[in-house]
Structures are given as structure tokens and as C-alpha cells.
Amino acid sequence: MSVSIAQGGPPPAFLRVWCYNFLCTGEVDIHSLSKEDVSDIESGLLISKVNEHSLMLWADEIVSCGYTSQLKLDNKDSIIRAIVLHSTTSLIPMWQQLRKGMELYGLVDQMARNPEACHSLFVPGKITKPDADFIMMNCQPRFSEKGTSKERTERKVIKFLQDFLQEVEMSVKHLSTYTDFRRIMGEAVRYGGGFHRV
């Protein structure tokens, strides 16, 4: 997932909100879980069976989900809640491993700092394309010691990168085809570091 996002590939926008929130925080808000968050077929079928009137037929399955109270229709909401919690929390070890892998690329830190900005990359819905300002805002360069010539050079490189991304963004908005984009990028690389020279 991290590599796909970093390389501009398709974002993994297929997660449920609770899964995305877990990747951001490392914790599950059990109060926000609902039966719509149940993704495995067996638990989904058990929930639909609980909505029927013959609870005793499914007693073993319900108890194996951690429900410990009486099996009666008055407790239907509690039974469904136990199934939902069992189904979702059983996935936590998998999400912990995924989160640990994403930490290698620093993606978890970005998600924790900017959960709203990263939300559309992981949860289905409208995907907003990041612009130059978004990219530069999320870059956290580590400069050399303040006042050194190396630090001044690093700042110039960052400023150049920011200007370059903004010029690319402005140029792309006015292009109608990929061929036009390729031509302009080729000229920019050939004739200098700025589009103002093209």
C-alpha cells in the first residue's frame, strides 16, 4: 500500500472507516462499530439468523462469539453487538501487522498527523488528487545545522522543488493531451530548471 501510494499508483481505497482509523491510531473505537462493519460471510449470516425467531438453533455459534447472557429476543441487540465485536476484533492482529509494515515507509506517521487528508486514499469515496501545496506541506525535510552553507543549499533545493511542482501543476492544468505534457516536460528538462524559460 505504501509503495503504491508513494509511486503514484492506485490508492487502496477499499477499507472500512474503522480499519482506516485503526491504521491511523493503533486503536479500535468499539463504540463506533456497527453490523455494517462485519465483512466475513459467516458472521453476517449469523447476524441475519439472530434477526429470525429461533435463537436456540444458533446458540453454539452465538456463545462462541463471546455472548454470555440469556438467549432471548429481548437481548437481540446485545447478541448482534457481541457478533460484531467478535468479527471485527478478530482482525486486529492482521491490521497490526499491516500497520507495522506501513511504519517502515513513514506512512503511519503521515496518517496520524493528517487523518483527514489521507482518508480518501484508503476509504471509498471521492479521491482528491494532491497538489503541489499538499505535497510540500507534508514534506518534513531535516536540514543540516542552522546557518551552515549546507543548510542554505538544502533550503534552496526545497524551494526549487516547490517552485518546480507548482509550475508543473499550472502547466498540466492547461494541457489537453498526454503528448502536450510530454513535450513541455521534455523542453523543461532540456532548457533549464524552470518552466518560465519554455
How would you characterize this protein structure?
The chain has 198 residues and is an all-alpha fold. The protein has two domains: 2-122, no CATH class; 132-197, no CATH class. It is built from eleven helices and no strands. The chain has helices spanning 2-6, 17-25, 41-50, 59-64, 76-89, 92-103, 107-113, 115-122, 132-138, 149-173, 178-191. Helix 2 packs across helix 6, helix 3 packs antiparallel against helix 5 (76-89) and helix 7 packs across helix 8. The radius of gyration is 25 Å and the shape is elongated. Residues 194-198 have low confidence and may be disordered.
Question: Can you lay out the helices and strands and say which pair or pack?
Answer:
Blueprint: H1 2-6, H2 17-25, H3 41-50, H4 59-64, H5 76-89, H6 92-103, H7 107-113, H8 115-122, H9 132-138, H10 149-173, H11 178-191
Protein name: G2/M phase-specific E3 ubiquitin-protein ligase
Organism: Dissostichus eleginoides
